[in-house]
Amino acid sequence: MDSIADERAYFSQRWPELRTVLEESGPAGLVATILASDSDAERAALFRFARQGLVLDEWEGKGRLDAYLTVTNAGREWLSERAEAVTPEERKSYLAVLAELTFNFAADIADCWPGDDEPRDQRHFQLGMEVAEQSVGLREELGKPDSSKHLGWWAFGYHQLRLGHTDGAVDGMERSLEHARRAAREAGEHDEISSQAPFPVLIGAGYLGLARIADGEPSGPDLYGEAIAAFRAQLTDEERRDDAQFGIDQLERVRAFIS
């Protein structure tokens, strides 16, 4: 397979079969079927896009998040083993899939998304934190840009926030915001908290404010309020309106989790 589009098409072709296996044999059966594929390229593609079926598609069965957890852990294990067994150049391709898989899981398992009311427990947040930390390290090793590092640190900080590790959450969100600001500067965009700032800067500032609120820092409410105000100012901008509303909905949802 020569491209991500080829991998996506391959997954879409295989998903009806894989969905049947999932419904009849559970996530362990799905993992076994993926690992029985003919080539590493096929296995990597199926692990990369498994979330498309497990999370975004409908299938009969219970424990959607737990099934996702099982398949993600199997993918992490297989990709890590293969990365250690191949040449340095080939290693990068396995780590790139692993970096994507780990971030997607850490983001999907977060309970910050408006409209997603599937229950989470400490087990999900704990694994989310561990997987996000792995994703942060992979982004560093692969030399990913600041826009990518911003996301990795956000996920790591978010799960620490939900686990009550407030000092770690503040550190993670500070790093996330700094990478978002660097990315904005590199793109010639505003990096201050204002209505002119891009989405990553404002969402990063909002989450840092939330982490500081949870940690009892006096600056938290003001920073959170500045981010919300900037998003509200963007609601009059047709190009920014949808993202701004999404940012507001997400931050207000998480604010309700913090006592």
Main attributes?
259 residues, mainly alpha, 10 helices, 76% helix, 0% strand
What does this structure look like?
There is one protein chain. This protein has helices spanning 4-35, 40-54, 64-85, 88-109, 122-141, 146-163, 166-186, 199-214, 220-234, 241-255. The chain starts with a helix and ends with a helix. The radius of gyration is 19 Å and the shape is globular. The protein has 259 residues and is mainly α. Helix content is 76%, strand content 0%. The model has no long low-confidence stretch (mean pLDDT 96).
Show the helix and strand layout:
Layout: H1 4-35, H2 40-54, H3 64-85, H4 88-109, H5 122-141, H6 146-163, H7 166-186, H8 199-214, H9 220-234, H10 241-255
Helix pairs in contact: 1-2, 1-3, 2-3, 2-4, 3-4, 4-5, 5-6, 6-7, 6-8, 7-8, 8-9, 8-10, 9-10
Please compute the radius of gyration using only Cα atoms.
Answer: 19 Å
- The helix tally amounts to 10
Distance between the termini: 49 Å
Global mean pLDDT: 96
The oligomeric state of the chains shown is single chain
Helix content: over 70%
Structural class: mainly alpha
So what's the overall shape? Answer: globular
Summarize the main sheet.
Answer: none
Can you write the helix and strand succession as a string? Answer: HHHHHHHHHH
Low-confidence stretches: none
Q: Hey, roughly how much beta strand do the residues contain?
A: under 5%
- The tally of beta strands, per DSSP, is 0
